[in-house]
Amino acid sequence: MKLFASAAVAALLLANPVLAQAAPKPSAKVTGQLAQLPSVDIPYTKFTLANGLTVIVHEDHKAPIVAVNVWYHVGSKNEPKGRTGFAHLFEHLMFNGSENFNDDWFKALEKLGATDMNGTTNEDRTNYFQNVPTAALDQVLWLESDRMGHLVGAIDKAKLDEQRGVVQNEKRQGQNQPYGQVWDVVTASTYDADHPYGHTVIGEMEDLDAASLDDVKDWFKKYYGPANAVLVLAGDITPAEAKAKAEKYFGDIPSGPPVMRQKAWVAKRTGSQRAEMQDRVPQSRIYKVWNIPQYGTAESDYLALLGDVLVSDKTSRLYQRLVYTDQIATNVGAGVSDSEIGSQFVVTLTVKPGGDVAAVEKAFDEEFQRLLRDGPTPEEVAKVRTLTLSNFVRGVERIGGFGGKSDILAESQVYLGSPDAYKTSLERVRGATAAQLQAAGKAWLTDGDFTLTVTPFPSYTTTAGADRKTMPEAGPTKAPAFVKLERATLSNGIKVILAERHETPQVRLGMLFDAGVAASAGDKAGLTSITTSMLTEGTKNRDGLTISRELAQLGAGINSGSGQDFTQVTLNTLTTTLDPALAIYADVLKNPAFKPEDLDRLKKQAIAGVQQAKQNPQAMSSRILPVLTYGPGSPYGQLTTEASLASISRDDLVRFQTTWLQPKDATLVVVGDTTMQALLPKLEAQLGGWTGAQSKTKAPVQAPPSKGAVYLIDKPGAQQSVIAAGNLLPPRDPNDQAAIDAFNTLFGGDFVSRLNMNLREDKHWSYGAFSGVRDARGSRLFLIRAPVQTDKTAESFTEARKELTDIIGPRPVTPAELAKAQNSLTLSMPGNWETGDAVADSIGELVNYGLPDSYFDEYPADVRAVSVESATAAAKKAIKPDELVWVIVGDRAVIEPKLKALKLDIKVIDADGKPAQ
Asked: Any keyword Amino-acid biosynthesis (predicted)?
């Protein structure tokens, strides 16, 4: 369930859907867990300036940062016919400078150390948010108020054309993904053209092309005044400070005209409508959509819980029937996409490769009708309530970002008129009954459905008030301090590292093993991932469904993942449910069953995932570049294929687990609401008796230099090309790591970096281009990636290659660039450890690379000590033009002629790196 209405329906439609839940009768122990869940209150102070600006303040002094969140009550539903996409276009324009700071927004913010900054638009609102060091708050408020009150004079035709091009590339990039055009069809099929939701947020190309300078200025004057906005300040600030600053920076801005408010328009449908479309996708997918009541209503909340009964973990009705038992689907999803004047209930069913679409829909209909006829079980209701409330608790650990406290307060105020309106939904969830969920389902989901079936397109072939003159100076910045770490060792040798965090009642445990992808070297590619995924599929004491059901009842979750050199199995749970959750976690680690039937099912899902990746241009480049740079024989160059996955046996899993996932060399990282004194006895009781062989050791991977080449992978009909390139650089060296970070930040690691500013802001050929270093204990991979419009593929290649050679040649690092990178790397650090997961990740970095506990405390000084000369030397260490391996994914028939005109020796390969005709 969603307790706040972010515009996530596209993610539900386009990404891999979530899972589900269902079960027998609740025990007193299970239902008691709900009573133990802490009630949630986000204290706030609210006031309104004389010009109508609503200001909400929440104090949270755990870190010296403030979340600044501005919501304008305008979205795509306010757009008249012929002006679609205006709200989203304006979101971009407002990042491009105002009258008194006529420069890129990110240039100002990144040098202040801002984090979690972005702007988004949905049907109902446009928001801008960032977390900033307390010392930089005045500067950010000056900037936010300048674009609210002093923007029109800074908008010119050049900026309009630039951002129009960026938005159009964003639209192309979205449509270029598998299932990327689904939402266009769903929107047009579920809403009439005259409904405010009858067009997509991103708009139509022709409307964007037709937008004039006067059009966009009139749009701004109508909707972006203080009386149509909410400002939330959450974090290291008091209400008195907030009021003084709000009046100083925003108080002189005229209120703006009255705005017409559209009330609820649910657009309930009758009858069943169907549509079919083909797309270049590896699997068929079924979408079912119903129009339902708007955000904040009891019906919407109950239907969201009903969606969780259908889909949220492995014990859910749809997952059990379609994925686990019948094995006719690889993914299922169900949930509510909430919006202000009407919402939608969306179900997605991804048919297994080559599977029967009709059989999947029939099985869904049987389960769906059974749920509507009989209602959910009491245990199902108890479980989804617990999951919803525990997820909400985890979200409010953060002050900013999506689902953080500032976001919740702003959303409640804008949509429901009060910052604490979210509590109504929380209490509704707490008291929800099976009868209420069933009644909502019968009222809204028995009629008016729209079904869209997407099937693979065949592989056809062809023959040939403040001072506006001067920005305020930033105050003194508080030096970031990493959390204090406590260490202990269990009787069996497991090392324990604890970082106490008592702000929210949750605990996160992560068992780190010295394994990773490299541990399966010389073995079957994909073995590491399959082995760790199988851990939660069943133990000698519990089957996979029991594990999933028990964890859901506790509001807990177990996940696993691997890097190049390490594997981690994590447990996230509430403080009140730590004991029973820890018992399940220990069982998963110590006693995996590796049942053949579970392995077969998981392999099918993994194979389907590979097939999906081979249809996604960005995934195609990410998948093949390491193979071509490290070489297929390198532990870091393994390519997971359908064949390698199919060959994995139960014996392989047992051998990997007994070789690598053993306690003697493991480190348990714990972050959260506990103490070492309370924790150690629990760990000793559950894990202390776990014994095993000494884990195998592996030497850091040393790979020879890559051989420069240009590879082309054909993706017929692609609306964008993806350009990627990489070469190897030596293992991590503490003497120049800060210089490598600084170089990468200014070259392609930030929004205002050279690569992105060239391809996105200057040329408008890409929605975003970046560079990065793929870390490892051995040889590392330096890489760049840029999705670009198809007709500019050759030109984008030329510009990217020029940027790579210029920074180590005629256009080396400049002092100004270095200073921006240093600010970006250091000033953002106070906000880097807001969540327990972020702290745990940083501790994992210390463990994985053998870094001292003082590493992060010393890092700012290391970065500040980087000189222009050392940053340039780092660039020369990272970029080896003669060793660069280029991978270009796109429509070969369109892009190859211009690429060949560059006199490139192009090798055409398929998605698995094999030579192609």
From this structure: no
